[in-house]
Write a structure and sequence with these properties.
With 257 residues, the chain is α/β, with parallel strands linked by helices. Helices cover 47% and strands 14% of the residues. Strand 2, helix 3 and strand 3 form a beta-alpha-beta unit.
């Protein structure tokens, strides 16, 4: 990497925590940050599943460690942030990626499903932002990147809890930016389009819905986790120091239709 690119996009010496990074979008974003020089902290609920991922990243020359925590439990979220800082000495970049989805018609959507989705997708995100934000504000610098969705802007079908949570994530991103951007902490979000992940497995397997979705995407393909690598690196790096409160859509052109 030449000196200009290193200055703008290099993350050497930085510590980045990516929640929900044992697979899919989170794993891809963690690897991108690590390849740019950051020490990446991998997160998931099952510690046993995290150890092999850390080993793979380390073998690839990426500095990595792991902290297991359930993002649906606020005390666990606070512990995750505190333990990351205690182990690594600092936290420069937080990527709030952990999320779940429950599908059912709104009239049949259970309280349990609603609560589970909101606990992880919204309460967990706010709790992590608050804990990391306190640390970053005290240091006068930091980057927080939330994972939004196309359903930050649209209502979706049979996913009322997910749509509500992702709409709220967009507004939370802006609210935190309004308070923190002037204090050196940029808060932005990435809104992935229809990505080929476990969360969209049901849509991919539905021949009618899958065809409808694909016909709406100008890029003429589902997104891959690797399609978020450039976006997360940009938002985590000095190149985006004057960008805050923004929801960056990575959707193959879907929103332009």
């Amino acid at each position: 990497m030449n000196s200009f690119l290193e200055q703008k996009f290099g993350l050497h010496g930085k510590v980045a925590l990516v929640t929900g990074s044992s697979q899919g979008l989170g794993r891809a974003m963690a690897e991108a940050l690590g390849r740019a020089g950051a020490h990446v902290v991998i997160n998931g609920r099952d510690a046993a599943k995290l150890a092999p991922i850390v080993a793979e990243l380390t073998a690839a020359g990426i500095a990595a460690s792991a902290v297991a925590a359930d993002l649906g439990v606020r005390a666990e979220v606070d512990r995750l942030i505190a333990e990351t800082i205690a182990r690594c000495g600092r936290l420069d970049i937080l990527v709030n990626n952990a999320g779940i989805i429950r599908r059912a018609p709104a009239a049949d959507h259970s309280d349990a499903d609603w609560d589970a989705v909101l606990n992880v997708n919204l309460d967990g995100v706010f709790t992590a932002c608050r804990a990391a934000g306190r640390h970053m504000l005290a240091r006068g610098s930091g980057k927080i990147i939330n994972t939004a969705s196309l359903l930050t802007f649209f209502g979706g079908i049979t996913v009322p809890g997910y749509a509500a949570s992702k709409g709220a994530v967009g507004q939370l991103t802006k609210a935190l930016s309004n308070e923190w951007a002037g204090k050196g902490v940029q808060v932005n979000a990435i809104a992935p389009g229809y990505m080929r992940t476990a969360n969209t497995a049901a849509l991919q397997a539905d021949p009618v819905r899958s065809k409808e979705i694909l016909s709406r995407i100008p890029a003429n393909r589902w997104g891959e986790p690797s399609d978020l690598e450039g976006a997360v690196l940009f938002l985590a790096s000095p190149a985006s120091d004057y960008l805050s409160g923004h929801v960056l859509v990575v959707d193959g052109g879907w929103c332009g239709r």
